[in-house]
Amino acid sequence: MHVACTQENLLQGLSLVSHIAGKNSNLPILSHVLLKTDGGGLKLSATNLEMAVSAQVRGKIEATGEFTVPVKLLQDYITLLPSGKVELVVQDDVLEIVSDGKKTTIKGMPSSEFPLLPKLVGDGGYKIEAEVLREAIDQVAFAVSSSESRPELGGVACYFNVFGPGALVMAATDSYRLTERIVKLAAGNPTGELRCIVPAKAMQEAARILSIYKDEVATPEEVVWTMNESQLVMNYGSVELISRLIEGSFPDYRQIIPTETATTAVVARRELAKAIRAAALFARQGIFDVHLEVLADGRLKIASSDSGTGTHSDAIQASVDGGENAVTVNFKYMMDGLSALRGNEVVIKLIDAMNPVLLQEKDGEDYRYIVMPIRQ
Question: Does CATH number 3.10.150.10 belong to domain 126-253?
């Protein structure tokens, strides 16, 4: 194999695929990147057996072939090279790197040792605006459960055209809080209903790729998702992410979303976040409780108390519809929700101290965040 490319393109390709490769004492090959001449350039691939990422790097092929080398070592070295031409040449069991008059060799392993990357057989794909998908993942994936006792909660549930035509609904929950984001699909997408649960790590990797991928010719505007019963493939420009899907059924989460509320308060998002951070300093360790109370004078009171540290109370201005109300919640969950919301104002909907709290954006209903109360 003999390929010439630029340092900038090679480094970006390595940054796209290297994140999922890691040390594995039983399978050292999983810490390697597969270098393979493909079409008009070099294809880089890495896998952890749960998912795989491939990226195409533009280059000039002098001789075809394929080889694997430790991805972190290769990436660290390429980072130190100056901008410009880099040549990669495989000789026997080593990769020779020539750049700026310097020559370096890295020992590798034959490509036959590298796991086979599955090829998805499915019909068509859903096109989703890249920036919208990245934002939706950021707003949902953080609420995925880390417990292994309920694997179906370890991913993001995706519903295509299930809750309405032309809409993708993404949801995640860890049983203590719930997030839901609705994404409108462009015309021309498949109209059939489809449900799947995408592992949290795959979702986070997709968001990372969407954040760092740049193309000097034309950065793509859409992501193409193709799925079957057990596998997802995401294509974004020259990058491909393949992931297994989680088996099982996601719970009917919409039954816990409040449909009626007793009190609605609209407050400044940043002001509320600041007040909760202050109250968090006096919350009980291990319980992380703060008390929210809608006062008769139209303010929202945020308070906390701990026998070991002291007490804290603050009240911020609010636009209130309904009577007085109060609820105790986990401040960490509240802060996660406020960080995911956009806009300057947030809508808080309360029923009573025993029912979930609903947070929404004032100027949009495409995102909902629900926090379960701490029952006193």
Answer: yes
